[in-house]
Design brief:
About 15% of the residues lie in helices and about 20% in strands. The protein is an alpha+beta fold and about 150 residues long. The chain has two domains: about 70 residues, Alpha-Beta Plaits; about 60 residues, Alpha-Beta Plaits, CATH 3.30.70. The structure holds iron/sulfur cluster (3 copies). One iron/sulfur cluster (SF4) binds next to helix 3.
Amino acid sequence: MRGDFKARHSPQRPPWAPDEEAFLAACTRCGDCVPVCPTRIVVVVRGYPEVDFKRGECTFCGACAAACKDGALPRANAQARPWNIKARIADNCLPRRGVECRICGDSCPVSAIRFSPRLGGPPVAEVDTASCTGCGACLAPCPVNAIRIT
Ligand code: SF4
Ligand code: SF4
Ligand code: SF4
């Protein structure tokens, strides 16, 4: 239980970061991972880098990991899993309140958001967690801020 709580409240570090304790031990706060990010989602908060999906998505280009010379973003190889986070849709999602919307589905590069038809209302958005990469591309476009990447 305590582990879950910690994980939920830890800042979202750049991809390929180890657990929070190991990351903080390795990161020297040099900031080298920040300017290399092509989508500008790596920001510095209290001295350490975090990902801010409100600014855009991760393309998994690997530039942040390549820029880190201190072993804080260890990307073992091109196939290494960047992270375990996934998109989640909250109850304020518009179709759940009877309003048609498919903006997040249109934004997802891997078509991980499905819209299931239902009687008496617009199709409801659902994340296919098996195909979601946690890239965050769906978060910023949502007009009601209903998406969390956790
Ligand atoms: S992998 Fe690329 S897009 Fe993703 S956070 Fe790192 S530099 Fe930015
Ligand atoms: S963009 Fe937001 S409101 Fe629209 S379907 Fe997706 S989660 Fe729901
Ligand atoms: S986080 Fe990325 S892969 Fe997952 S549903 Fe959103 S846009 Fe699609």
